[in-house]
Design goal:
Oligomer: heterotetramer
Number of helices of chain A: 9
CATH class of chain D: Alpha Beta
Number of strands of chain D: 4
Radius of gyration of chain D: 15 Å
CATH topology of chain A: Fumarate Reductase Iron-sulfur Protein, Chain B, domain 2
CATH superfamily of chain A: Alpha-helical ferredoxin
Chains: A mainly alpha (128), B alpha/beta (663), C alpha/beta (324), D alpha/beta (146)
Radius of gyration of chain A: 14 Å
CATH architecture of chain A: Orthogonal Bundle
Number of domains of chain D: 1
Largest sheet of chain A: none
Distance between the termini of chain D: 8 Å
Order of helices and strands of chain D: EHEHEHEH
Order of helices and strands of chain A: HHHHHHHHH
Shape of chain A: globular
Structural class of chain D: alpha/beta
Strand content of chain D: 15-25%
Strand content of chain A: under 5%
Shape of chain D: globular
Number of helices of chain D: 4
Largest interface: B-D, 53 and 54 residues
Distance between the termini of chain A: 28 Å
Chain lengths: 128, 663, 324, 146
């Protein structure tokens, strides 16, 4: 399939080096959205490194990530898992065409429990 | 015409795989001056060396070029070979066709061509070589040990036992170092003080050892066998010869503001204090920052209460200048500052402690008398979380932390966990780890015992965040095995902080011109074959100053360094480096520029009668003391008339190399 | 002033202070002056006028081994820097020289008079700011400042940095213009422009060695270019490379020691602005290591045999830009 | 004129014995490659590098000259690289002033532990020299091969 997103493309988008990961799990230890995710931050890195891009693109995790960048901030190896996720998300958006959320969609989705950070990052994620 | 022999080494396949050694040997045969050229599998082997020796004799060679590995590896070997065949050793040049050719190039043609150029450059140089004879210098039979921890003490004891005088310079008021702060030692769980203090006493009582505590190195000059060190002995304000160490002053002192550094600042001490009960020398010291006498001019209670009359507020710092034949660096380490890791709340809660602080909290001589209590409220912690690799194993581009593994943390954490579980079976201990590294005799067994017999909960994963929630510390980490996020409400969090070289190491390294790596650990002369020597002759490395080590390794290295020192000090004289500067008296202007740049003061001037085509009569000329000159060549470039030249690296030799390379 | 000076020298010689003087004497033409060692009997040959441009300090070096008592030396304010530098370098023994600081109001460049279209010069009379040039074709009056030697336009001031006594008045003739103006202008050019500038200039070099021989800093017992063992010997520059090499190395060897006395450019028969090479070094040194004037006093340590731990890296040369 | 000849770049690297030469050795033992056009000359200390050697190299056809020494503060002889630093700054300034591209001369501090830096430095310097092309401003035609 020619439109298959490759590991190389993901890495080109985000400029992350998953090989630097020493699998300490600090990213997952630090993630506030951990319990919501089907795959966890440390797995993102592993999966990209092993080319399991489609699995990741189909996962819910990429939408659960708050883009709070705590994993990126605290990673002792400067692997930057949040950037990987951002790249995978972007790849999904690119593949699907311009079907992403507009700011007008946001109010309808708001609920009281939603952290403010998620609202802000949703703008970054979905607004053009 | 000179008779040069060229010897091309295969180094097994190390060279021969990317350099056509036969082609190089053949090509060199037609170089002017080359009368013999050959190749061999291992030139450094006995057979290889015999090949060189035979050729020197058979072809009456007056110059030898060996195309092989780096001269840093085997130059000395081949010089000896030449000498044993009757050729001056300095008529040998090495073309480095391994490290700087075969190992970095993949293409055979490219490698071969470059090897030929390098060989030609060495031939060009050797043609301008002159036979050199090394001078000799005497050796001062005394060693200086910088740092009085276990590494310094052990090195000093071993050198002193061999009959040489040793001075230990220690910056703090007592020897003992980090080991004195430890409670128990892994993997035997014997008491640290019980095995260290006898050594401290032995060092103090040894007739050949002189302790210079509360002192700092100011300056070092000279060279191997002949160092001169200036040592600043800070004022203790207590007369060492009079103080009996009774401790009355420390009890009477009204100031209680000074943080007790020995207890990692977990409690306070008087302004006059003895660092700990077994301190050596057992002499008090006044901390002027907190002393009321020094701050207000009043008080003086210690002086009034000292029956020995040892308190002397007028004491001045003292400068000692001593000569040494060898210097041993044993500057040790400190834990890194954990406050950079704010995700672990180190600065937000007293109950987040470093491992060395925990060591003091568990020590019978520590602030809690050996009872494990929370620093915040003095209660027994029931849930304890250990976090490994805090600041170790970080990538170079990470915002904080060290790239290296601190090596000792896995084991001491197992020790702490085990001791806590043994003493307080109702306390739960969790250890978050990335890997548990236990290479060492009985180390893995020790770690397994902690997990299996003592029920320590090892969790593979890292803690992402520690937050203070009331009296509890909320620890959020990941368990990579169960693929779950773990939440623990802990009473105490212990950070296994990385260790880093003592901050004084950098300036000492500069003083000694001993090279250091980017982490400020001292570099060894060779990572495998010369692990206890600095590349700077006469400087030796003992303990953690060279890299993270545990106690047995430190002691082993201390002994190894000592044996190297003994080997040096036992020599009657040292054979110098004949590659020294020399001034051509006919050309010398006597302008003194060279003298200004000489780092060793090896150049002096004298008025001398010279008879040359340009000048006849008495003139001022530079004279190089060959025993002092180390052959850097700074003077040679300063000299506008090229009167000053460097033997072994002469202007003509280097220019011939340039010509050959650019040909 | 010449008379006053001569009387003072005679008096010092009578007192037995010295029996020789390093001074100027008349050369082929009235505007030619040349250095001379004169005894009391030869003192009549001495001149001191506005054509005494040559810096005499260097000529003391050769005299040093011969002097038993002392020698008198006439030193203009700017020459005193060179003398100090040579004392620093132990080439001149201060104890063997009695330095008479001679007053200087700027020296005249006869070539500049000629450049004004004046020829057949037979004499010059000075009158304050003006000079009257007598020629075979009548008199011409010129502004004095228009015909001063190039080096006088960047006068170091009227103070003698070293002297046992001074005779005569001095004047600061500097125009107040920036000594490094031309250096900066060159630095602004593209590398190719600079290259062709210097090619044009240095290709004029005939390797007469006048610059080297007059330079107080170029006083090696044997110059590297004369020494067959240095590998760089060249008696006559064979090609462009050797022209460059000679002047780069000459400037490098005097860098940090050059007092900017300007003698090299003054004596160059081809009119090569050699001082611009030296000034480049001086300008870089001033900029990177702090303002430094060689010869300001004896015993200084010049910046190229000194260092600080915070010195800029050689990459500054590239980072300053203008590399095209 | 041998203009049509294929240009064979020549890069001379002067390395101090204690740090940079050892760094080059480490690059070798770590199998980190850099162009074969780079040839190393071992000198005891960066302060041994006489400007005459640099000019000599250019004369003989070098296209770039690089000096590598211990990091400032780490000189085996304490102060050698401090002097080298000033000397090279002065010399490079002069060469640039004469119109020679300042990218043809470089100084880098490479410690014995920095094998990777050594290889990176040489790769980068060689790349720069390849981009600059043949040195013609400081060549000596007599020394050209024909």
């Amino acid at each position: 399939m020619s439109d298959k997103i490759t590991k190389e493309e993901i890495l080109r988008i985000c400029n992350v080096q998953p090989k630097k990961c020493m699998k300490c799990g600090k990213c997952s230890g630090t993630c506030p959205a951990y319990d919501e995710m089907d795959y966890h931050p440390h797995q993102f890195v592993y999966m990209v490194e092993h080319g399991q891009i489609e699995k990741l693109m189909a996962s819910q995790s990429i939408y659960k990530c708050l883009s709070c960048f705590a994993c990126l901030e605290r990673c002792p190896r400067n692997v930057e898992p949040a950037k990987l996720i951002e790249a995978v998300r972007l790849a999904v958006i690119r593949q699907q065409g311009k079907n992403h959320m507009t700011e007008n969609d946001v109010p309808a989705l708001l609920d009281e429990e939603l952290p403010q950070q998620a609202i802000v990052s949703s703008m970054r994620k979905y607004k053009k | 015409m000179q008779k040069i022999g060229v010897f091309v080494c295969w180094c097994g396949s190390n060279i021969a795989a990317t350099v056509d050694v036969k082609a190089v040997a053949n090509a060199m045969r037609s170089e002017p001056g080359v009368v013999y050229s050959t190749d061999y599998q291992y030139m450094c082997s006995e057979n290889g060396q015999n090949l060189i020796k035979d050729a020197i004799r058979d072809y009456k060679l007056d110059g030898v070029v060996v195309c092989s590995c780096s001269p840093r590896m085997h130059e000395a070997t081949f010089r000896k070979t030449a000498l044993s065949a009757g050729l001056n050793p300095y008529m040998v040049e090495i073309a480095n066709i391994r490290e700087q050719c075969s190992w970095i190039h993949k293409d055979m043609e490219e490698g071969t061509q470059k090897a030929m150029v390098l060989a030609r450059a060495a031939i060009a140089k050797v043609k301008k070589n002159a036979p050199l004879t090394a001078g000799t210098t005497p050796v001062t039979k005394r060693a200086l040990v910088i740092g009085g921890g276990i590494a310094g003490i052990q090195t000093a004891l071993d050198v002193a036992d061999a009959g040489y005088e040793v001075d230990i310079v220690e910056k703090s008021p007592t020897i003992g170092g980090r080991m004195a702060q430890l409670d128990k030692t892994f993997p035997t769980l014997d008491c640290s003080a019980c095995i260290l203090t006898p050594k401290m006493v032995e060092a103090n009582q040894h007739e050949n050892i002189h302790l210079i505590t509360y002192a700092e190195l100011e300056n070092v000059s000279g060279f191997v066998g002949n160092f001169t060190a200036r040592i600043k002995k800070k004022a203790r304000y207590v007369d060492e010869t009079k103080c009996t160490g009774c401790g009355i002053c420390t009890e009477k002192c009204p100031s209680r503001k000074g943080l007790n550094a020995f207890n990692m600042g977990l409690n306070t001490r008087g302004a006059v204090y003895i660092p700990f009960a077994q301190a050596i020398p057992n002499v008090a010291v006044i901390d002027t920052e907190n002393c009321l006498h020094f701050k207000t001019g009043k008080c003086g209670i210690c002086q009034k209460n000292c029956s020995a009359g040892a308190i002397n507020f007028e004491q001045k710092e003292e400068i000692l200048e001593r000569k040494y034949g060898a210097i041993i660096v044993a500057t040790g380490f400190r834990p890194i500052d954990a406050s950079a890791f704010d995700e672990y709340a180190y600065t937000q809660s007293k109950d987040v402690v470093t491992s060395l602080e925990l060591e003091r909290l568990m020590n019978a001589a520590g602030p809690t008398g050996g009872v494990l209590l929370r620093p915040s409220d003095g209660e027994h912690p029931k849930e304890i979380v250990f976090i490994q690799c805090v600041g170790s194993r970080c990538s170079k581009d990470a915002a904080k932390g060290k790239e290296y593994c601190s090596k000792i943390c896995c084991m001491y954490t197992a020790k702490h966990a085990m001791l806590i579980r043994e003493k307080y079976p109702d306390t739960n201990v969790h250890v978050f780890y990335i890997d548990v590294r236990t290479p060492g005799k009985n180390f893995d067994e020790f770690y397994r015992r902690a997990a299996e017999q003592y029920g320590v909960d090892y969790i593979k994963g890292m803690v992402g965040k520690v937050s203070v929630e009331g009296k509890k510390l909320h620890v959020q980490g990941s368990d990579l095995i169960s693929n779950e996020q773990v939440h623990i409400d802990a009473d105490l969090v212990v950070l296994a902080t990385a260790i880093e070289p003592d901050p004084t190491a950098r300036s000492i390294g500069t003083m000694l011109t001993a090279s250091m790596d980017t982490n400020d650990f001292f570099t060894e002369a060779h990572p495998k074959l010369r692990p206890v020597e600095s590349p700077t002759a006469g400087i030796f490395l003992s303990g953690v100053c060279q890299g993270p080590k545990d106690i047995p390794e430190t002691v082993a290295q201390a002994g190894a360094a000592a044996s190297k020192v003994i080997g040096l000090l036992s020599k009657k004289e040292l054979v110098g480096n004949p590659c020294v500067a020399h001034a051509n008296e006919l050309l010398c202007n006597g302008c003194s520029q060279c003298e200004k740049v000489c780092p060793y003061g090896a150049i002096t001037y004298e008025d001398k009668e010279v008879r040359g085509p340009e000048f006849r009569g008495t003139k001022r000329i530079a004279v190089v003391n060959e025993a002092i000159c180390q052959g850097c060549g700074a003077c040679t470039v300063t000299c506008p008339s090229t009167a000053m030249d460097l033997k072994g690296f002469s202007n003509n030799q280097i220019m011939e190399e340039v010509d050959a390379i650019c040909r | 002033m010449q008379r006053e000076l001569m009387e003072r020298i005679r008096a010092l010689m009578d007192k037995g202070v010295a029996d020789q003087v390093l001074a100027w004497k008349r050369g082929e033409f009235f505007y030619d002056t040349e250095p001379a060692i004169l005894t009391k009997d030869e003192l009549g040959e001495m001149v001191y006028d506005s054509f005494c441009g040559p810096n005499l300090s260097k000529y003391l070096i050769k005299e040093m081994p011969k002097i038993e008592n002392k020698i008198l030396a006439l030193i203009k304010p700017c020459d005193s820097y060179s003398l100090n530098q040579l004392i620093t370098e132990h080439r001149i023994d201060r104890d063997k020289v009695y330095v008479i600081g001679v007053g200087c109001k700027g020296k005249i460049d006869v070539d500049k008079i000629r450049a004004k279209g004046v020829s057949g010069i037979t004499g010059v009379d000075e009158n304050g700011d003006k000079i009257t040039v007598h020629t075979l074709y009548g008199d011409t009056t010129l502004d004095r400042k228009d015909v001063l030697l190039g080096k006088c336009l960047f006068c170091k001031g009227k103070e003698h940095r070293i002297a046992d006594e001074t005779v005569g008045e001095s004047e600061d003739t500097s125009e107040g213009s920036d000594r490094f103006e031309m250096v900066k202008k060159l630095e602004q050019m593209t590398p190719d422009e600079r290259f062709s500038f210097w090619r044009k200039e240095l290709s004029k070099c005939i390797r007469c060695n006048a610059c080297r021989n007059v330079c107080p800093a170029c006083s090696c017992v044997k110059c590297v270019f004369d020494n067959p063992n240095t590998g760089v010997q060249n008696k006559a520059a064979a090609n462009e490379f050797e022209e460059n090499l000679f002047h780069i190395i000459r400037a490098y060897h005097v860098a940090g020691r050059c007092t900017d006395c300007g003698e090299c450019s003054r004596v160059c028969p081809q009119g090569i602005p050699l001082h611009l090479l030296n000034r480049k070094f001086i300008s870089d040194i001033n900029e990177l290591y702090g303002t430094y004037q060689a010869g300001e006093c004896a015993g200084q340590r010049h910046p190229l045999i000194d260092y600080t731990q915070e010195d800029s890296e050689p990459s500054i040369v590239h980072e300053r830009g203008n590399n095209g | 004129m041998p203009m049509n000849q294929e240009w064979k770049p020549k890069i001379v690297a002067f390395c101090c014995n204690w740090c940079s030469y050892a760094g080059a050795d480490l690059a070798g033992s770590s199998r980190l490659s850099y162009p074969a056009d780079v040839k190393i000359i071992r000198i005891p200390c960066s302060c041994r590098l006489n400007p005459l050697f640099i000019l000599r190299a250019f004369q003989r056809g070098a296209d770039g000259v690089i000096l590598c020494g211990c990091h400032p503060g780490d000189c085996h002889y304490s102060t050698g690289n401090y002097y080298a630093r000033r000397r090279m700054t002065a010399l490079f300034g002069m060469l640039s002033y004469l119109g020679i591209d300042s990218r043809r001369t470089r100084v880098e501090w490479v410690s014995a532990a920095e094998g990777a830096k050594f290889a990176e430095t040489m790769n980068d310097f060689a790349k720069t020299i390849y981009a600059l092309g043949e040195n013609v401003k400081l060549e000596d035609l007599r020394c050209k091969e024909n």
